[in-house]
Amino acid sequence: MAKTTPKLSTDALTAKQFIERLKLLSSKQAEKSHAHLAADKSDAIIGVKMGQIFALAKEFMDMPLGEVEKLLDSPIHEVRVGAVSIMDFQARSKKTTDARSKELFDLYIRRHDRINTWDLVDRSAPWVVGSYLFEKPRKALYKLAKSKMMAERRTAIVSTLYFIGKGDVDDAFKLAEIMLYDKEDLIHKANGWALRFAGDKDRKRLLAFLDEYAASMPRVTLRYAIEKMDKKQREHYLKLKSQE
Q: What single string gives the DSSP state of each residue in 209-223?
């Protein structure tokens, strides 16, 4: 009979316990391979594989948000990956109340200064932000789209992946258009990713968007957006770009 991991008591769901457990998983090999994830020189990488972080976060998914915020304050990048993973697991849980969903959203927005790299955004924005806003006004995303912080702008477009999954593509196209000529390559990639996904739901709208912008949009955005098209369509839009 397969062994199951005993459920942690509420008293053990603290930031201190999580960090202690996480540090036991560190390795020099993973530290080298994850060096590129650091936001800056103050962002420490201790070398824990992402799968291990996610598994540990699942054990701690009922952690109080006050303790999650302590994780967000950590200078260790993998600790913050754990924090946003716990937030993501809570946002996805059917047991999560509307009030807790709002608390998760509020914490994410309030501490966006600590959710400051593309991987932290991608790990949590669709569910923590996107699912919360799905049946609500989405002005917050348009405010984020105008932020000076790359991570906040990335949250704006990545959050729409939740909407797209539900068949709602409007904000994906609108936000991609607003940020189409962003100065950051990480936004170009996110825009292309969202456009491709939106195109899976509404191909005609994607084609219309590309007919208007393919010649001028960043090449990486275009390549991501046309990735699932047949060879003839890809060549058509790439030719428009080359004629710019």
A: HHHHHTTTS-HHHHH
Q: How many CA atoms lie within 13 A of 182 on its CB side?
A: 29
Tokens at residue 164, please?
């797209």
Positive or negative: CA dihedral 222, 186, 140, 197: positive
Secondary structure of residue 76 in the 3-state scheme: strand
How much is the pLDDT for 12?
77
Instruction: Please tell me the distance from the alpha carbon of residue 181 to that of residue 70, in angstroms, as a whole number.
Output: 36
CA–CA distances in Å: residue 126 to residues 47, 110, 112, 194, 210: 26, 17, 15, 11, 24
For the record, the structure tokens of 240 come out as: 């428009």
Alpha helices in the chain (DSSP H): 15-23, 28-33, 50-59, 65-72, 77-92, 98-110, 118-124, 132-133, 139-144, 150-158, 160-165, 170-178, 185-201, 203-213, 219-225, 231-242
- Going by the DSSP 8-state scheme, the letter that residue 37 receives in this structure is G
Within 8 A by CB and 6+ apart from 236, the residues are none
Tokens of 126: 């669709």
Q: What's the pLDDT tens digit per position in 136-180? A: 999 999 999 999 999 999 999 999 999 999 999 999 999 999 999
What's the token pair of residue 186? 């990480």
203, 204, 217 from 198: Cα distances, Å: 8, 10, 17
